[in-house]
UniProtKB/TrEMBL annotation:
SUPFAM superfamilies: Sigma2 domain of RNA polymerase sigma factors, Sigma3 and sigma4 domains of RNA polymerase sigma factors. Belongs to the sigma-70 factor family. ECF subfamily. Keywords: Sigma factor, Transcription, Transcription regulation. It comes from the Bacteria. Residues 36-100 form the RNA polymerase sigma-70 region domain. The keyword Hydrolase does not apply. This is RNA polymerase sigma factor. It holds the Pfam family Sigma70_r2. InterPro entries: RNA_pol_sigma-70-like, RNA_pol_sigma-70_dom, RNA_pol_sigma70_r2, RNA_pol_sigma70_r4_t2, RNA_pol_sigma_r2, RNA_pol_sigma_r3/r4-like, WH-like_DNA-bd_sf. Residues 134-185 form the RNA polymerase sigma factor 70 region 4 type domain. The keyword Transcription regulation applies.
Length: 206
């Protein structure tokens, strides 16, 4: 399922992001603003898929923690995306617990990839056929493990190993959850055939 391949737009910015983070760790406030600009849209989309209209408040809390702990981060641009997603996810789960909302748990968490053939990529057909907001509304209706996997892979643009680190799972389990989530979305949209031959961020043009 698209192993090792990330959305081209996200990958293209990782060098710039890594350089900005390094400068920000040295006290460059303008560089931190650059890192924020590169990360925030996808991070906000990820949170919208988890907490809906409260995403901006949760994102604000996450960025306070990111800024506070920035000196502890070690890694490149891709690593920074994963690190910020982990912090944002923790804040989102805290928020859901405070709201006494329990995201649905998936009945299946297998470390197995179902490889069903399909003529088109679900990312191309399903996600690009609807608006970002509509897509996130649909994603929120998925079981939690599927929703998080789809959001991290498609919205944040993490590869399976990076998404697995965020979720504390094995890459195969994340691939399977993302596959099943996308299959559900495709079914809701009337798309036939599910593959993962080139994930994209929501709204990214070809």
């Amino acid at each position: 399922m698209g192993q090792g391949r990330e959305p081209r737009r996200v990958r293209a910015h990782d060098g710039e992001l890594g350089a900005a983070v390094a400068r920000a760790q040295e006290g460059d406030e303008a560089a931190f603003a650059v890192a924020y600009r590169l990360v925030q849209p996808a991070l906000l989309g990820f949170l919208r898929g988890l907490v809906g209209e409260d995403a901006e408040d949760v994102a604000s809390d996450a960025w306070l923690e990111i800024a506070r702990d920035l000196g502890r981060f070690k890694g490149d641009g891709a690593g920074f995306r994963g690190w910020t997603a982990t912090i944002a996810r923790h804040r989102a789960l805290d928020h859901l617990r405070r709201q006494k909302v329990r995201p649905r748990a998936s009945a299946l968490d297998q470390d197995v990839l179902l490889d069903l053939p399909g003529p088109q990529s679900t990312y191309d057909q399903a996600l690009e056929s609807i608006s970002t907001e509509a897509a996130l509304d649909l994603v929120r209706g998925l079981p939690r493990d599927q929703a998080e996997a789809v959001l991290l892979r498609v919205v944040v643009g993490l590869d399976a190993p990076a998404a697995a680190r965020v979720l504390g799972k094995r890459p195969g389990a994340v691939r399977t959850a993302a596959y099943r989530g996308l299959k559900r979305l495709a079914k809701q949209l009337g798309v036939q055939g599910v593959t993962d031959d080139g994930p994209r961020t929501l709204g990214e043009s070809k």
